[in-house]
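Sample pair:
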Amino acid sequence: MRKLFLAFLGVILLGLQFAPMANADRCDATAITAPARSETVGGMVTIIGRANLSDSFVRYQVDFATAGKEDWLEINELAFAVLNDAVLARWDTNAISEGAYDLRVRAIDRTGNYCEQIVASVRVARNAARQELNGEPIRIPTLTGAFYVALPALPKIETCTHSWDVGAQVT
């Protein structure tokens, strides 16, 4: 009887040991892949990532807060679709102050439990979205990182003015 009790206790303890790993695996399907930590953004920012749970998924939300604070504000309206490497939300940074912000995606299940991932210290700058086409490489974010495009400097175009004489005849 004692051996049976110890075997039963061992099975219970083994199950408790692996329970957090199962939850971690469940939460791997919830992440923000762009923008990245410490990336500088501005204007209308596309937030890309995954919002999924292995079971009981109901909805997801994307929030932002001042870096290191818990004053979360929701970016997107209610979102009920499971997304994998897709656009989670579009964040209009024109209405907020420049500085560092944290982004959070939270996938919520039927019971109200959730998985979340936070991208820390995304920097908002007014001129980040307005890169000049002056021969310098432009960084273009992608799902797997970023690539750079070097564009030639734009030529200077002279301004033309037109003079019209209404009713005149051309001969």
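Residues 102 and 109 are 23 Å apart (CA to CA).
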